[in-house]
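[READ THE FOLD]
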Amino acid sequence: MNTTTGTEPKLARGWSISRVQSCLDSADKDSLLLFLEQRYMERFFEPIRTLKDSPHQFQGYGFAIMALCSLLIESLQCYRYGLPTTYEPEYRYSLSAFTPPREYEISANEHKKGGDAFNDFFSQDNHKILFPGVDGNVFYSAIRNGLLHQAQTKQGWRIRGDQPVVWNATDKIVDRTRFADALQKAFKEYISELGKSAWDDDIWLKARRKIWWLIQLSS
């Protein structure tokens, strides 16, 4: 593997672009799993834990936690898609400048929008267990879009931290702590699924394509 330099961009702590590319080129599945775990831990789960553990977290940190959760869901679902974006114009502009190897090419009929990502995420059988009752359409429009575009929830939804369930559709309440915990379990299940799958299985073909595009867009 290439040696990490002090100036080379890093995709995670200890993971330079060249190191991740080397793992991709050599089909080093185990190392790529370690990379993904490190990247998601430092970009999502450690910040979420810091917010959850803060003595002031009941004074509004739920917005920050759920905003991170929303980013995480879309990113994680893009690994299952093997896509670098859910924003259609990017394919026509910035992404069109790249010439990917055949295995990393993306056909137009594979493109997904943000709403698709949330619907597909919450429609997975294991996620129905982790997030009982969560409606992908409602979450996308009322939670995700509200927080990321206007720093507020929409349609009367509230974020709390003291609920007996993850999702209360009747009272329109999502429990930030239960939701974040379930999301970390969903990530661990994805990593476990990758670990049990062969390099050329579809789940890895998609993950490899996503990682290749991550490298290009981070260089």
Q: What stands out?
A: The radius of gyration is 18 Å. The chain has a mean pLDDT of 94.
